[in-house]
Structures are given as structure tokens and as C-alpha cells.
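User: Can you predict the 3D structure of GNAT family N-acetyltransferase? Sequence below.
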Amino acid sequence: MKIIEANPEEAETVRIVMQSAFEEYKQDSPPSGAMEETTESIQKAVQNQEETAAVCYIDNTAVGVVRMREEEDSMYFFRLSVLPEKRGNGIGMALVQWVEKKAASLGKTTVYCKVRASTPQNVKRYERLGYYIFDRYIVEKPDKPAFKVISMKKQVTT
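Assistant: Sure. Here are the predicted C-alpha cells for GNAT family N-acetyltransferase:
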């Protein structure tokens, strides 16, 4: 298993792995916004340094990705994605640990993520990695059903 920071040219790989992993949420109400993202939007965000992405490879095949944004004293990670057929092999945990190390190397003290409340299994996964709930709120968007979100964070040492 090898995790590397993605360059803008790898945006298509990031999108394919992410959308393959988020396919199961396609029927959610509303569906995950991950399904609407494009290679171009990801490429632009990485190129403009608005976000960073990392890709996990096993035998030169992309099996997982994570995206993140630096904030003042924290790192926000999102769209943690592992191909369905590769789940249960520690890939997600390795990607989260990669984010935590990256955050610490940049002097960040906190890493956080947001999870839909409709996915309690994901909340439990992050809790096992030392994350705790610090906020709950409802997302409301025009012409879409509202949904509940749980924010989780973890302190990291620099």
C-alpha cells in the first residue's frame, strides 16, 4: 500500500475512485454531492491549492482517495473514498492517518470531518480512530431535502 499526494493531472483518478465509492449513496435524499463533481472541478481545486488530494495505491491500482483543505489551525478532510471491493483492508484508516500526519507536519492542531447522520456506521468508524462528535446541524439547500450532519474532530500533535 502506497499513499501519494495527487497532482492536478490525477484529478480523473480521484473522481473515478470517489464516485465509485459514493455510488451507494446515489439514492440518498438528497444524493451525495460527490456524484456531481467533475474531473475539471477537482483538478482546478488542486491546481489552485484550494485543496489537496491523496491517492492510495495497491499494486499500482488506485483503491482509495481522500481530499482535504487547510484552515487556520486545522485540516478538514472530506470525500474519504475506498472502492467497495477493497473495504475492510485498512485503506480508509491509512488515508485518515496520512491526513493526520500531513496536518501535524503543517503545524495544525486539529483534524475534522463531517458525516451524514444517516450513516451511523461511518460515525462509529471515525470514533474508533479517536474522533469525537463536536457539532450537529441540518443542511438546507434550495429545491433539495434537508439532511442532518455530524461534525467530528481529533487533536493531532505536531
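The mean pLDDT is 95. The beta strands are 2-5, 52-58, 61-70, 74-82, 110-116, 132-139, 147-155.
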